[in-house]
Design goal:
Helix content is 63%, strand content 0%. Helix 1 runs antiparallel to helix 2 and helix 1 packs parallel to helix 3. The longest helix is centred in the N-terminal third of the chain and has 25 residues. The N and C termini lie far apart (79 Å).
Amino acid sequence: WYQRRVRGIVRPILSKTPEEARKGVLALYRDFYREMPWTCRSHLLDTPIAVARQKLKDEFLKNKDVTDVRIIDMHVVKGRMTLEEFHNFWAQNYNMYNYFDSTDTQKRKATEKNNTFMDNFYKSSD
C-alpha cells in the first residue's frame, strides 16, 4: 500500500492563527454564558445559575494549555454542537447532570438523605 506522508503545514480547520482560535473560544464561552440561565430554567435543573457558570468556567479552563490551533478548533466545534444540543433539547437532563456531578445542590440533597428522624433524634440527645 502506498502511504502518503504529510510534509509542511497542515491545513487549518477553522482558524488560521492562534488569535482567530482565541476569538472563537471567547465567542463560544460568551454564547454558553448567555445561554446558561435559559438552559437551567428550561431543563428544570436544580443547579443555581452561578454554580453552572462556575462549572462552565472550569470546563473551559481544563483546556487552557492547548496550543495547537487545530485541536482548539475541534474543541470549539464540539462545544458548538453541545450548545446546540442543550438549546434544542436534544440533550436530556441526565446528560446535562454529567457536567454538574458535584454541585452544592446535590451535596445538600445527599446530606438531607442522611438526616432522617432517628439521626436527628440521636444528635439532639448528645
